[in-house]
Amino acid sequence: MKHSRLPLITTIFVLVFFYLPIVVLVINSFNASRFGGTWEGFSFKWYIRLFHQREIWHALRNTLIIAVGATSVSAVIGTTAAFALHRYTSRLQRIHYTLIYTPLVVPEILMGMSLLLAFVAIGVKLGLFTIFLAHVTFCISYVAMVVLARLQDFDFSVIEAAQDLGANWWETAVKVLLPLLAPGIAAGALLAFTLSVDDFVISFFVAGPGSTTLPIRIYSMIKHGSPPLINALSSILLVVTFAAVWLSQRLTEEKK
Amino acid sequence: MSIEQKKRLQETLVTLPSLGWLLVLFVAPTLIVFVITFKPADPFGGIGPGWTLETLRSLANPNYPAIIWRTVWLSMLTTVLCILLATPMGYFMARVGSKWQKVMLLLVIVPFWTSFLVRIFAWKVLLHPEGPLKQFLVYLHLVKPETSLLYNANAVLLVLVYSYLPFAILPIYAAAEKFDFNLIEAARDLGAHSLRAFFSIFLPGIRRGLMTAVLVVFIPALGSYVIPDIVGGPGSEMIGNKIAQRTFVDRNLPHASGLSAFLTLAVLAPMVAVLTLQKRKGEKGPLIEGDA
Amino acid sequence: MRRRMDLFTGAGEVTVSEFLEFDNVSKFFGSLRAVDGCSLEIKKGEFFSLLGPSGCGKTTLLRILAGFENPDTGRVRLDGQDITDLPPNHRKVNTIFQSYALFPHLTVQENIAFGPRIAGHSGRQLRDEVGAMLKLIQLEDQAHKKPGQLSGGQKQRVAIARALINKPQVLLLDEPLAALDLKLRQRMLIELDLIHDEVGITFLYVTHDQGEAMSLSDRIAVMNKGKIEQIGTPAEIYEAPRSSFVAAFIGDTNFFEGKVAEVIDENYSRLEIDGFPDVTVFNDKQIHMGSAVYLSVRPEKFRISRDNPLEDRLNNIVRARVEDVIYLGSSTKYWVRCQDYRMAVYRQHSRYLLDEKPIRWNDEVWVWWHADDGFMMERYSESDEKLMDGPPDSMGDNGLFDVVRPNRAAK
Questions:
Q1: How close A42 comes to chain B (CA, Å)?
Q2: What is the ipTM of this complex?
């Protein structure tokens, strides 16, 4: 629409809308005042105070343990899933696809609730392990979708070429398929990692005492605690996220 | 073993890890939710022995219909607002040069990847009764000093839209990117004016993206819990709040389970509707055009 | 085992089995008969082409030999060994894919070395092998580049080297020139020919381009709708097509619809053609009197002149009017109209005669051709099948050869 400026205006509005709270947050994290209302000077004190919060370090440690574990497992399972979905088109795959697709759409609270009930009913103790299991469950779908998208652009004749030249299925997978699929898998793994680090609702439901993750800690801080510390923590998380997004973009771009 | 059988076995082996995991940790727990609805609560907050219909009966709580209606209503509003904002934006992004497209995509994705809690908290700060935004609006005489921007349904709606907008933008943008804009030129050439071309050519052309956007906003919105919990008040509770309350505060797992079962059914209905609609039109393939 | 005998091979050498054999091979995809009962024998060292339009089954047949498709019926034998159930990586057969399928993450050298490495070669032996190949394809200085940095022609040569280094018994080429532009294609045609002569292994070449097939092949199998229409040398295919499909698919031709009116002697018959003078034609197929036939005459077989040629009982002479003149440089294509028919006539300019007046539009001319230069095929309908001694080469979907379009002019 050459004449209408509406799309452009909408876009600008939305982008401002997106970034406004984030910008305010970051600014406030350097605000020496305790209440966001008034500006009392530039200060690092909240960051320093944050550094000394032992519970936060503990929560961060838990989060990272779970994230690394969940990412690794879901990367493998998600890749095999994507491969199956791409290669075969039977009824099994149609069911498979629905199963992969559904976790992406259902509300997290349902997933959290159902897993909690399952663990309680079976008698599994809630803790880091249950959180790990839950995270793998939803990460598989994300990894599968990312890798599947990559596979669809994949020229399969190189697989046939490898077989034609004498490679068995193992040699073909290791020497040809995986190297070419690696960037896609990495992008999927990065997405899974971010989702795992960021997950609150599902973790909240299946966590046990002593297995606090960072988001759970942030939540309790929001409900009961010190806003400026959260500001500072959030700003740090933002920087880390920016870096992760940039890295992921580089990975998906380079192989084009 | 014949070639066909070998292939079948191969397929089963490759599918097994993901299929197995999801059956055990996704499908089975969902079924368990329905089962536990028929069990009594035990006084320690767990699940008691035996079976009962008591939980079902307690679900007929007179407060619930209002909450259910509010949940559905807020979710629908959120969906509509997201689509209204995302469609022109997707249109714009698809038409702009490819260099800018990458930048725009990044700009949209970054907030989406930042911590969800952080973003909600950011709004809590922004909408704070003594916060700068409120002061600014009072200064402009747009709101009275007594009105609270926070802890009501409007705040919930605002933050819902904020949170789910990227989920709407991505599929619409993906569909718009694949759209052949020459079709609009052709329509204009045949006499249609811009608005007409937009509604009768562009929108149907990105129909799949629109449906995906509706699906990935409406359904998760139905289950919102954190947003009404942090920026909402007692008058803006949604089903998610109630489920969490029953689980953690009242420690009545079967009751919470019953609510979850209900929500599950409510969620399955539109999903099944969309999927059969797609199959009827003979379209196959992923609804979501890949994640970024 | 069925064997195909053509006109010019005479009694033929009967061998017990050939080097490469497809024995009644079929492949169905659901209800689609991609390959339908094909039998084929290829001699060792031959350059053999599978030629046909898209969808005729030639690529499927190739893939069955490579091992990427399993036939639903029939067997494939290579050098006496039945390889039908062998997986592709165990066959001594290598493929040049249409998209080349070079490994994008490996260099030229590593691509070529792939097969030998799998086979366990290493060290000096491997280096020498790869070096020899690089020399053959003249890409020694590109050895460390990745496929993304190469041109189309270079990629193709790497694909060839990568296959040949394994010393396969058969080299399969799946439309390898399709992605190249015209000039490059012509160059690669020559190179392929040279490589075949130099290396001496059996080539099985798949293409839809008759020019490629005719210029490269020792023998061609023309395929249509999953069946083999005819096997023969390029000359046999061109000059003595056994079905209307082959006649229409290869080169240009003119088709006439007629009926055998009289058998003149053991070699010749007279055809009655509705809307055209009677025609004498060589009847090698012993087609009976009264049969409905298609007559095919290629445009270069006609002679055209303003002067009346001499009467000759074996020459068909007709009077026609020139409707179109298309000057092509080395030849001219005339469209002439004789009664109800429009014919294409090629005349080569072997001699430029200064004082000869050129044939122009709307001129009245004489057109003639020798009875031996036309060939005919029976027109079959479903009911006629019962009257035949043996099945025709190809029936097409409707019982008639649906590629044949008689040159009837619109009124």
A1: 17
A2: 0.83
